[in-house]
Each structure stands twice: as C-alpha cells, then as structure tokens.
Amino acid sequence: MTEQHSLDLERSTASGKSDDGGITARASATPAEHELIVRDRRFDRKAMVPRWWHSNDPVATAWYNSVSASLPRGEAFFIDTLRDFREGLPPKLAREIKAFTAQEINHTREHVAFNRLVSDHGYNVESIDQGIQAMLDLAAGRPKEFNLAITIALEHFAAIISRQLLTDPRYLEGADPVAADVWRWHATEEIEHKGLVYDIWLHATRDWSSWKRYKTRALVAALITKKYFGNRIRDAIGLLEQDGFSRRQAKWKLYAFLWWKPGMMRRMFFEWAAILTPGFHPWKHDDRALIQKSESPYADAVMPAE
After folding, report:
1. According to the UniProt record, where is the region Disordered (predicted)?
2. I need a surface site. Which of 9, 48, 85, 134 has the fewest CB within 10 A?
C-alpha cells in the first residue's frame, strides 16, 4: 500500500457520518499538510521570577500558577490515554502521537521547573496536583474511550486559552519575561496539536453511531470542563489566601480578573462552547498563522487584539 493510499484511507476511516447525523461522510478538518514540530525549549532555571511574577499582581499570578500546577499530572494522563490507542492507527496519526508525546513531556518538564519556583516563594501547590489526580481518578475503570473524551475536552480548553494568549498581548503584558516565554511556547504547541486527539477519537469511534459519538463527547466536555475550571478557581483562591487575602476578597478579585478585565473567560466562552455543537472539530478554526507568528521575534508576533 502506498503512503498516499494510506493517507487517503486514514481520512476516510477517521470520519464516518458527521456528528449531526448527516448522510455525507465528513473527513477530519485537520489540514492535510499540517505537521507537529517538537520544540525542545529549556528555560533559564537560574532566573528566579518574582513572587508576583505577573505584573506584580497577586491575582493574575495566582490564576496562572493554579493552571501551571495542574499541568504535569494532566499531561501525563493525556500521554497515557493516547498510548491505549496506538495499535492499528493510520501511519500519520501514529507519527503524530510520537510528536505529541514529546511535546507534552517537554511541557511537563518546564512546568515542573516553573512550579518549583512557585514553591520556592513559599506557596503550597502540592494540593493542586493532588486535586488533579482526584479528578482524573473519576475515569478509573471506565472504557478507554471515556478517557479519550476527557482528553478532547481538556485539550480544547488548552487550545482556546492558548489562542487568547497569542492573539491578545494584554494577557501577558507586564509579566516576567522568562515566565511569559514559557507560556507563549507552550501555547504555540497546544494550538499546533489541538486536532490530534479528536482525529484519534474519530478513528477509535468509527463504528459508533453519530448520536453516541456526539452525546458522549459533548456530555463529557460539559462535565469535565466545569470541574476543571471550578478547581482552577478554587486553587487560585487558595493561593491568594496564602498571600493574606480573605476568601471573600480573593473570590471577587479573581472573578473580576477572569470575567471583567482582562476577562479571558468571558472572551473565550463561545469558542469553548463550540465543543458542544454537532459537527465540531478543533481545526474548523484554522489558526496556524499564530504558530508562524509566535516563532518570529515576539515584537512582530503579537496579533492585534480582537
């Protein structure tokens, strides 16, 4: 079988009927020429970022610290989940799993180092990692496709946050340069591999009915995103309490940061909600231009605020 024939077969077997029950088979929306690139970045371990590394603002710092502390455990879950689907994959997807795994291992390494800096400032972030494990333990004993649906939901959340970081300079404006560089690098690769898990889902569930596929991934997306986002708020509030804020103060300040100014959650809500719609695919929003721009000198990379 030729390589081209394999790619053609991949596109057909990874599609099936559309989630909205349409009669015409729908291939993956991932651009055919798109490839994953492993950027093995190592950031300056000796550059001790300030305690309030984001604009000397404890609220912004707490939010990003909460997200960072959740990543190593979550990314290990993603890698383990995809490992269960390697057998019988079309060649391109099999190659991309290897690249995805390398990217996620690198992300884990750098966020472990970043989280250590956070701990060195006196913050207790161990409970955040434990909370992620408790959330992921809910998937124990369930079919492996359930874990894949969880990974779709969390990768979608990561991709839309990443798009916000790379399109609007306000989100990292004033942040410590080393810390900001970690987030931009990570965001670039999250966008780059945002469609892989969904394409594996299409292949793994190709014998499912359209309704079963849609119902499972939409329900899991709603439940797991609510739980993950709720836990990030809870943990950011906990970090602010470690800075001396009352729980009431921390809650109001954090909600104002997330929903009002700069308001990332408000701005990306409809992007997130796309996962609940029939016919969803991450690459129906083609933002490959962000990958290219983020790799140019950053002064030229920032996309204009929308």
Report:
1. 1-29
2. 134
> pTM for the whole thing?
0.86
Kindly state whether residue 36 falls inside one of the protein's structural domains: no
Contact status, residue 106 vs residue 41, Cβ threshold 8 Å: yes
In a domain, 58, yes or no: yes
pLDDT band of 99, cuts 50, 70, 90 = very high
Distance CA 148, CA 21 (A): 21
> Structure tokens of 29?
């929306």
24 assigned to some structural domain = no
* DSSP code string of 8-30: HHHHHHTT-B-TT--SSB----S
**Count of CB atoms situated within 10 Å of the CB of 137:** 9
Residue 243: pLDDT over 70: yes
Is residue 195 within 8 A of residue 285, CB to CB? The reply is: no
Please give the tally of structural domains in the chain. 1
Please work out, in degrees rounded to the nearest 5, the angle formed at the alpha carbon of residue 101 by the alpha carbons of 152 and 183.
Answer: 75
283 in Cβ contact with 195 (< 8 Å): yes
Using CA atoms, how far apart are residues 253 and 241, in angstroms rounded to an integer? 12
- Return all residues near 224 (Cβ < 8 A) that are at least 6 apart: 135, 150, 153, 154
Dump pLDDT digits (tens) for 39-60: 999 998 888 799 999 999 999 9
CATH number, domain with residue 176 = 1.20.910
Distance CA 287, CA 284 (A): 9
Residue 295 structural domain: 53-301
The answer to whether the beta carbons of residues 195 and 28 sit under 8 Å apart is yes
In a domain, 16, yes or no: no
